[in-house]
Amino acid sequence: MALLFLNTFCLSFLALIATSRAGSCRSYCGNITVDYPFSLDYGCGHPGFKELLFCMNDVLMFHISSGSYRVLDIDYAYQALTLHDPHMSTCDTIVLGGRGNGFTVEDWRAPYFNPTSDNVFMLIGCSAESPVFQGFPGKHLPCRNVSGMGCEEYYDCPAWTMVGHKTLGSGYGSGPPECCAVAFEAIKAINLSKLQCEGYSSAYSLAPLRVDGAGGWSYGIRVKYSVQGNDEFCRACEATGGACGFGTDGIKQLCMCGSFNSTTNCDSERSTSSKMTLPLAEALAGFCIHMAMWMISSHF
Ligand SMILES: *[C@@H]1O[C@H](CO)[C@@H](O)[C@H](O)[C@H]1NC(C)=O
Ligand SMILES: *[C@@H]1O[C@H](CO)[C@@H](O)[C@H](O)[C@H]1NC(C)=O
Ligand SMILES: *[C@@H]1O[C@H](CO)[C@@H](O)[C@H](O)[C@H]1NC(C)=O
Ligand SMILES: *[C@@H]1O[C@H](CO)[C@@H](O)[C@H](O)[C@H]1NC(C)=O
């Protein structure tokens, strides 16, 4: 009886230690790991990434001022996200009517996100008065190929035969092209209503471009993220067993150490009481492990 009680106590105690040690803000949505600087819980992650990701029915969504996008991938090693906008044109469909999100982030969030330099935005059906074409007199257009991807090849997509390639815009020679490819740096905000465009497509290349043309491109928005050289805090926090978060002001970073929060890391601000409890906890854990070993061996 006493043994059973000790056993139950030890099991729950070990479980408690395991969860508080992990102190984790890490979570999953579908098969995508959500980890620092991202999080699904307010107070977890980096404050520049708060209220950004939402998990709905195992689908991870990215929400910024221009709209909601599905997250296809988070690449923590290269610090990049791959997003999908359902109203974005691809090689198979052209979506017009200005329904696409484009890509615009809130001013305060802008330093943290930038579409990668090898991501091409192809603006479709922009008016001649569009800001895209202003300041480029004569035939000098801002349209160009980005990482080997551009409108000339995009026109070969099946989507264009359906929509009627030459019916948009006002024909050759006069008027703007039906499609104009730009890099994000050139425009800074892909806002279809501001740019007076009917639609857009976005593609990116990860590896050296394959030769099979626009049909082989990856369609989506590849965004580079960065915590603005602010990574030291979190590294120190995690190294001492904490989880990185921020306070209720939504600005100041916090290291969550289970029983307390620290403004530095879990070692430097451990209170005297928890300094006492940690060795005690470790002693208890050791005792529990010995108990378990003894119980196992006594069965044989
Ligand atoms: C997640 O699963 C989908 C299919 O359900 C797959 O296409 C995708 O590559 C997976 N993503 C990761 C990060 O494993
Ligand atoms: C896009 O531009 C329009 C018109 O200038 C503006 O009203 C709207 O707020 C902008 N959208 C975003 C997401 O910035
Ligand atoms: C983009 O690349 C295509 C195919 O290589 C080429 O025909 C076209 O002239 C290029 N366009 C621009 C604007 O440089
Ligand atoms: C630590 O901070 C987080 C995020 O602000 C908060 O949810 C949590 O309750 C705090 N924990 C303690 C022990 O104060």
From TrEMBL:
Report the membrane topology from the UniProt record.
Single-pass membrane protein
Q: Kindly give the InterPro entries that the UniProt entry links to this protein.
A: WAK_GUB (IPR025287)
List UniProt keywords, sorted A-Z. Answer: Membrane, Signal, Transmembrane, Transmembrane helix
Which residue positions does the secretion signal occupy? Answer: 1-22
Task: Provide any one GO MF term from the record.
Answer: polysaccharide binding
Q: Where in the cell is it found?
A: Membrane
Asked if the record carries the keyword Signal, the reply is: yes
Principal localization? membrane
Outline the extent of the Wall-associated receptor kinase galacturonan-binding domain: 25-85
Top-level taxon: Eukaryota
Gene Ontology annotations for the cellular component aspect, listed alphabetically: membrane
This chain's protein is named Wall-associated receptor kinase galacturonan-binding domain-containing protein
Q: Which organism is it from?
A: Hibiscus trionum (Flower of an hour)
